[in-house]
Amino acid sequence: MSQKIRVVIAKPGLDGHDRGAKVIARALRDAGMEVIYTGLRQTPEQIVSAALQEDADVIGLSILSGAHMHICPRVMTLLKEKGLDDVQVVIGGIIPDVDLPKLNAMGIRGVFLPGTPMQHIIDYITANARVRVEPV
Amino acid sequence: MKSVVDRTETRKGRWEREVVGPALRRSPERPGPFTTISGRPIERLYAPEDVGAIDYDRDVNNPGEFPYVRGIHPTGYRGKLWTMRQFAGFGTPEETNQRYKDLIAAGGTGLSVAFDLPTLMGRDPDHELSLGEVGKCGVSIVSLADMERLFDGIPLNDPMITTSMTINSPASMIFAMYLVVAEQHGADWKKISGTIQNDILKEFIAQKEYIFPPRASMRLITDVFGFCSKEVPKWNTISVSGYHIREAGSTSLQELAFTLRDGLEYVQYGVDAGLDVDDFVPRMSFFFNSHSDFFEEIAKYRAARKLWAGAMKNRFGAKNPRSWQLRFHAQTAGVSLTAQQPYNNVVRTALQALAAVLGGANSLHTNSLDEALALPTRETATIALRTQQIIAHESGVTTVVDPLGGSYFIEKLTRDMEEGALHYWDTIDRMGGMVEAIERGYPQMEIAEASYQFQQAVERKDKTIVGVNDFRQTDEKPIEILYIDDTASDQQLARLADLKRTRDHDRVRRTLDALKDVARGQGNTMVPLLECVRAYATVGEMCDALREVWGEYEEVPVI
């Protein structure tokens, strides 16, 4: 049996609009993933530390406030520092088109804009989450 | 099929049997489900028997008469149109000041300030959580100096200009700043009008911009009620808000029930603080969402007026008719806007705005077509305002009061919404009140569930969203959006550093200490806050002083 994909859903920054984060957390859980929702107002340090402690395969960031170009680079740098390079980072929220290439360049390829079907996000994560080595 | 005629059969029953039945056998209805956007089942027809239990004089009555189902003004919009109040704010105070001047020049009749997240959360731009947030979602206001810049050249002593400020946890601090600027403009506090949102309960329930624990937060609010009843009698001290509850994914009914129950909680706390109902309730106002399901929204507004009138008169014994009259601002549903084919949003917004007008909104904000992508540009903000002007001046709907009154469907739906809300009130009353219900996570869980159910309905295509789960387009060209860079942030950080070098430090410390003393003991917090503001203490410093005394709220997230 394959292990469940472990996902940390986080809301960085000061914004409290958590409908999207909560709906996606529940949809991923219903799709059979192990979901940890951090709650609101997490610093990049707290998010990466949660990913480390929870042995996450995926970090899902929900950002609507426009702070993504500050928060994402910091999360990616911290992941590298902790040796968590293989943790897949995806982001959902309000992201202007001009920022997409910049996010891709820092290694964030799963960027989900308003109106993305849940199934699309579930499929993307299933296809792209790191492959776990089963303990013998 | 029945072989014997049922003597108790209603006219509608007969029609269903004799007319609808055969028609359905010839050509069936669409698969449905025939429900509102909130999942409420809707019958194919409403007829006299659906409104048989409704007594016009007692349950509906004429506009301007209790229980105000048909509106609080006897002449509807023939007397005064609604206030066209466009919510705006971004970047530095100077940039937002310019947008206000543009809106006034375009015929806007009220100002509405959107603050950035650090301001809303009581953090200065140099706090670590403010990283990347300064000036992004609204205007950055750090100290009185920024408030002076925000209203530069906009005379606050002009009675034609009323300002609404969407601020909650630090509402008293921002309000104190506004009062000091108004004073600088030569305005008399006794004469100025405007609104602060000041609604903390919906922050715990939905929008989550809380700072202090619930009971301390409620004290700040009752202090504003008490202060204004004496010093700023025309100010709307609170805008009890369902907008954010709906945006968080609630149903229309939940929005109605929770918002009004929040309102009752504020009234109860005010009474418990020793205030007379009729001294502060007339200055309470409401703020509702205007979502996509046209008739459900209209029924919601009509039911809201009736519920409030009844509760104020019977539950609280209010004597002043102004206490019974629910006044509300409406905003079209941001959550309904799509990033796909954004021009379609103009049409969505127009329909939602029409629902608000047919429901008797006293003021209205229409969203701009690009708001699923970014804050609006000057051009899209103008189209949004024009949408209201077209409804007001071209559609003809403003010539008659409550034109949908008497519609079997609307009256029945209004009654159903009212009964559903009363049921929710009972549940919350049994928990001990709204503060207790929030502490148990009750409204939060109800909303999370509704929001998930709606998302599932969209995934199943039970609900169609044009351009999103149907009628998609693959060759869309991107539209030009407002991109807010870090200039505002850099400038606000530099100004903050400068302010901290030049102001009178002793005075700042003394006024903050006085604030803490009042917060620990008795007294109205507005009084020391005004002194902090005059000393140019920052929003972050004032909130930190209160954090020191009251602590911070942390929620247990529910998914």
Distance between the termini of chain B: 47 Å
What characteristic shape of chain B results from the CA principal axes? Answer: globular
Strand order of the largest sheet of chain B: 4-3-2-1-8-7-6-5
Number of strands of chain A: 5
Helix content of chain A: 25-40%
Order of helices and strands of chain A: EHEHEHEHEH
Strand content of chain B: 5-15%
Q: In percent, how helical is the residue content of chain B?
A: 40-55%
First CA to last CA of chain A: what distance? 13 Å
What is the CATH class of chain B?
Answer: Alpha Beta
Structural class by SSE content of chain B: alpha/beta
Radius of gyration of chain A: 14 Å
Q: What would you call the structural class of chain A?
A: alpha/beta
Largest interface: A-B, 38 and 47 residues
Shape verdict of chain A:
globular
Report the biggest beta sheet of chain A as strand number plus sense, adding barrel if it closes. 5 strands, parallel
Number of strands of chain B: 8
Number of helices of chain B: 23
- What is the multimeric organization of the chains shown? heterodimer
Strand order across the biggest sheet of chain A? Answer: 2-1-3-4-5
Essential attributes:
heterodimer, A: 136 residues, alpha/beta, 5 helices, 39% helix, B: 559 residues, TIM Barrel, 8-stranded parallel beta sheet, 8 strands, 49% helix
Structure write-up:
With 136 residues, chain A is α/β, with parallel strands linked by helices. Chain A has five helices and five strands, in the order βαβαβαβαβα. The mean pLDDT of chain A is 92. Chain A starts with 5 loop residues before the first strand and ends in an 8-residue tail after the last helix. Chain B has one domain: TIM Barrel, CATH 3.20.20. Chain B starts with 10 loop residues before the first helix and ends in a 9-residue tail after the last helix. By secondary structure, chain B is α/β, with parallel strands linked by helices. The mean pLDDT of chain B is 95. Chain A binds chain B through residues 13-19, 22-23, 25-27, 29, 35, 37-41, 43, 65-71, 74, 94, 96-98, 113-115, 117-119, and chain B through 117-118, 120-121, 123, 128-133, 136-137, 203, 207-209, 247-249, 335, 337-340, 372-374, 448, 451-452, 455, 459, 465, 467-469, 478, 481, 483-484, 554-559.
